[in-house]
Design goal:
Layout: H1 8-11, H2 16-20, H3 27-45, E1 47-48, H4 50-54, H5 56-65, E2 72-75, H6 82-90, H7 125-138, E3 145-150, H8 157-169, E4 173-179, H9 190-201, H10 208-211, E5 215-221, H11 225-237, E6 243-249, H12 257-261, E7 268-269, H13 289-303, E8 307-311, H14 315-318, H15 320-326, E9 331-333, H16 338-350, E10 354-358, H17 361-364, H18 368-376, E11 383-386, H19 404-409, E12 415-418, H20 422-434, E13 440-443, E14 467-470, E15 475-479, H21 484-496, E16 501-505, E17 508-510, H22 514-523, E18 526-530, H23 538-548, E19 557-561, H24 573-580, H25 584-602
Parallel strand pairs: 2-3, 3-4, 4-6, 5-6, 8-9, 8-10, 10-11, 11-13, 12-13, 15-16, 15-18, 18-19
Antiparallel strand pairs: 1-7, 12-17, 14-16
The structure holds thiamine diphosphate.
C-alpha cells in the first residue's frame, strides 16, 4: 500500500504472527487502525458493527498474547468477529462479508483455521471451549483455549451448564466475559445487575463464577490494550492453570460516535455514510411481516387482557418492542433463553393466560424439548409466532428457518399455520389468539409483505381449512406460506403453455385439510405441494395422507417441492429460493416436465 496509507501498521499484518512481532508499544496504534478499517469496511457492506467496534482492543490483545491458531479463540455468536477476520488473513475479503460468495457474517470452521468453532446462535462458546480443553488434555497437548462471550450471551442457560461443568473438571480454560451491558437491546435480568455491581465495586471475590469453581479476574478496561495484554499474559503464564473467568468491560459501538449514540449501539447496520453515520434507507415498500405481526398482536391484546408476549432477547427483531410500548406489563424479555421462554410461556398458559412466544424459527430449535415436553404433551395453549421462517438471506444457513414445519408438524396436539401474505398473517394472529384448545404455531418470513390490503381486525380462521385461490383443471398446486405468489406466477406461465392450474393456499400445515387434498387429487391429474421448509414438513404429511388413504391412484402425479437437503449459503433471499429450486419457473418446469413425459408416452 502507499506510504500515506490510512493503516500503515495494519497493512503489514497479514496474519497474527506478524502482529506478534511488533513491540507492545505499537498495539494501541494497531487497534486504532483496525477500528478505522472496520468502520470503513462496514460503511460499504453493512452488517454487524457495534459488537465488533467494542472488541477491537480485545481482538488485538488476544492474538498478540496467544499463539493463534494453535491456541483456540472462540467468539460466541461470532457477530463481533469482523476485527478478528481482518487480523487473520481475511482483510482482503472483508468487503465481501455477507455478500453472495463472500465471507460469512459469523465464524466458520471451513473459512479459516483461525475460526476453531462455527457459531451464529449464541452461548455455545464455553461448552465448545471446554470440549476443546478436555480434548487437548486427553491428547497430551498444551495449547490454550479461550472463549469470548458477551454479557447478553451469558444470559443463556447453556453458558451456565458449561461453567458448571468447567468448574468441576478443572481443565485449563479462559472464559473472557465481554461485558458491554448490552444484548441487541439493553441487557436484562438479575445476572446483569450482578455484573454491574462487580464493575462498580471492581470486585472479583465472592462472585457467582468463583463459587462455581472458576478463578475470577477483573474487571479490566477492555479499551486499554496494554492493560488487556498484561492481564492476559498473567493468565497465560499462570502455572496453576484451571478455569479462569476474565471480566472485561467494554462499550458497544466504541470509537464511532454515531454507533455509540444509537439506541442499539450500532448492533447491525446497513451501509452508511462515513462522516455522519447515516445509514442507507431501504426503499419504503409494503410493511414487513414483523410489523404486521406486531400491529395485529397489539389489536388482539387490546381486546383480550389475557394476551401476553414473550421474547428471548429479540424485542426489535420480533416487533415486541412495539407491543412492549403498548403493554409494558404484559411483555417479557427473558434474555437469550429460548428454552426458558417456552417453558415460562407454558407456565403462563397453565394459569389461563394467552402467551405468545415470539421466537425466530431458527432460535426455536434450541427449545425443542420444551416445546414437546412442557407444551405439547400437556396440551397447553402456547401460541408460537415464528418470525424469519424460510430462507433469510445474508445471515445464511445458521439463521435459516428451514425446519420448523418438520419439527412441529410431527407433534401431537399441535396446530401449525403459515401465512401466505401479510393479510393472512393478521387472520392467523387472530386465530391463534382465539384458539385455546392446545398449542398453535404460525410462521411468516423475513422482510416485506406483498402489499395486499390489510384487514382492520383479523378473522378467526376455521382450523385445518385451506382455500382455493384460483380454479383450474389439470394441475393442482397446493402452496403453504409465501410461495403462494410463486405458485400463482407459475400458473400464469403454465397457462401460456396451455396447462390449466388450480392454485390453493393450505393455510394449515397441521392438521392437513384432508377434504381439500382429496378434492384436489380427485379433480386433477397432478398435485404439486410447495413450502418454504425442509423435507419432512407439509408435503411429507400430505403424501403420507395420500398413501395411507389409498389415494395414490395410477396416473396421479404427485410432487413435493421443499428446500433441498443442503445448508444453503448466504445470498439474496430471492436468489436463495432460485438456488433452492422453489421459484415460479421451477414450479412451472416441474409441471411442464410431467406433461412432456405424458405427451412422449402417448406419442
Ligand atoms: C440462540 C440465539 N438467540 C438469539 C440470538 C440473536 N442475537 C444475536 S447477537 C445477540 C446479542 C448478544 O449480546 P452479547 O452477547 O452481549 O454481545 P454484544 O452484541 O453485546 O457484543 C442476540 C440476542 C442468537 N444469535 N442466538
Amino acid at each position: 500500500m502507499s506510504d500515506n496509507s490510512r493503516t500503515p501498521l495494519l497493512d503489514a499484518i497479514k496474519l497474527p504472527a506478524d502482529l506478534r512481532r511488533l513491540e507492545k508499544s505499537r498495539l494501541k496504534q494497531v487497534s486504532d487502525e483496525l477500528r478505522s478499517e472496520l468502520i470503513h469496511a462496514v460503511s460499504e457492506t453493512g452488517g454487524h458493527f457495534g459488537a465488533g467496534l467494542g472488541v477491537v482492543e480485545l481482538t488485538v490483545a488476544l492474538h498478540y498474547v496467544f499463539k493463534t491458531p494453535e491456541d483456540r479463540v472462540i467468539w460466541d455468536v461470532g457477530h463481533q468477529a469482523y476485527p478478528h477476520k481482518i487480523l487473520t488473513g481475511r482483510r482482503a475479503r472483508i468487503r465481501t462479508i455477507r455478500k453472495p460468495g463472500g465471507l460469512s457474517g459469523f465464524t466458520r470452521r471451513s473459512e479459516s483455521p483461525f475460526d476453531p468453532f462455527g457459531a451464529a446462535h449464541s452461548s455455545t462458546s464455553v461448552s465448545a471451549g471446554l470440549g476443546m480443553a478436555v480434548g487437548r488434555d486427553l491428547l497430551g497437548k498444551d495449547n490454550h483455549v479461550i472463549a469470548v462471550i458477551g454479557d447478553g450471551a451469558m444470559s443463556a442457560g447453556m453458558a451456565y451448564e458449561a461453567i458448571n461443568n468447567a468448574g468441576a473438571l478443572g481443565s485449563r480454560l479462559l472464559v473472557v466475559l465481554n461485558d458491554n451491558d448490552m444484548s441487541i437491546a439493553p441487557a436484562t435480568g438479575a445476572l446483569n445487575k450482578h455484573l454491574n455491581e462487580l464493575t462498580v465495586t471492581k470486585s472479583a471475590e465472592n462472585t457467582l463464577f468463583e463459587k462455581l469453581g472458576m478463578r475470577h479476574v477483573g474487571p479490566v478496561d477492555g479499551h486499554d490494550v496494554d492493560a488487556l495484554v498484561k492481564v492476559l499474559e498473567q493468565i497465560r503464564d499462570d502455572p496453576d492453570g484451571g478455569p479462569v473467568l476474565l471480566h472485561v468491560v467494554t462499550r458497544k459501538g466504541h470509537g464511532y460516535p454515531p454507533a455509540e449514540a444509537a439506541a442499539d449501539k450500532g448492533h447491525a447496520v446497513s451501509k452508511f455514510d462515513l462522516a455522519t453515520g447515516v445509514q442507507a434507507k431501504a426503499k419504503a415498500g409494503a410493511p414487513t411481516y414483523t410489523r404486521v405481526f406486531a400491529d395485529s398482536l397489539i389489536a388482539e391484546a387490546k381486546a383480550d387482557p389475557r394476551i401476553v408476549a414473550v421474547t428471548a432477547a429479540m424485542p426489535s427483531g420480533t416487533g415486541l418492542d412495539l407491543f412492549g410500548k403498548a403493554f409494558p406489563e404484559r411483555t417479557f424479555d427473558v434474555g437469550i433463553a429460548e428454552q426458558h421462554a417456552v417453558t415460562f410461556a407454558a407456565g403462563l398458559a397453565a394459569e389461563g393466560l394467552k402467551p405468545f412466544a415470539v421466537i425466530y424459527s431458527t432460535f426455536l430449535q434450541r427449545a425443542y424439548d420444551q416445546v414437546v415436553h412442557d407444551v405439547a404433551i400437556q396440551n397447553l395453549p402456547v401460541r408460537f409466532a415464528m418470525d424469519r421462517a424460510g430462507l433469510v438471506g445474508a445471515d445464511g444457513a445458521t439463521h435459516a428457518g428451514s425446519f420448523d414445519l418438520a419439527y412441529l408438524c410431527c407433534l401431537p396436539n399441535f396446530v401449525v399455520m403459515a401465512a401466505a401474505n401479510e393479510a393472512e398473517l393478521v387472520h392467523m394472529v387472530a386465530t391463534a389468539a382465539a384458539y385455546d384448545k392446545g398449542p398453535i404455531a404460525l410462521r411468516y418470513p423475513r422482510g416485506e409483505g406483498t402489499g395486499v390490503a390489510l384487514p382492520e381486525r383479523g378473522e378467526v380462521l376455521p382450523i385445518g381449512k385451506g382455500r382455493v385461490v384460483r380454479e383450474g383443471k389439470e394441475v393442482a398446486i397446493l402452496s403453504l406460506g409465501t410461495r403462494l405468489a410463486a405458485a400463482l406466477e407459475a400458473a400464469d406461465q403454465l397457462r401460456a403453455q396451455g396447462i390449466s392450474c388450480t392454485v390453493a393456499d393450505a393455510r394449515f400445515a397441521k392438521p392437513v385439510d384432508e377434504e381439500l387434498v382429496r378434492r384436489l387429487v380427485r379433480n386433477h391429474g397432478m398435485l404439486v405441494t410447495i413450502e418454504e421448509g425442509s423435507v419432512g414438513g407439509f408435503g411429507s404429511h400430505v403424501l403420507h395422507f395420500l398413501a395411507n388413504e389409498g389415494l395414490l391412484r395410477p396416473g396421479l402425479e404427485v410432487r413435493t417441492m421443499t428446500l433441498p437437503d443442503v445448508f444453503q449459503e448466504h445470498d439474496d433471499p430471492a436468489r436463495q429460493y432460485e438456488t433452492a429450486g422453489l421459484a415460479a419457473a421451477d414450479i412451472a418446469r416441474v409441471v411442464a416436465a410431467h406433461f412432456v413425459k405424458k405427451a412422449s408416452a402417448r406419442g
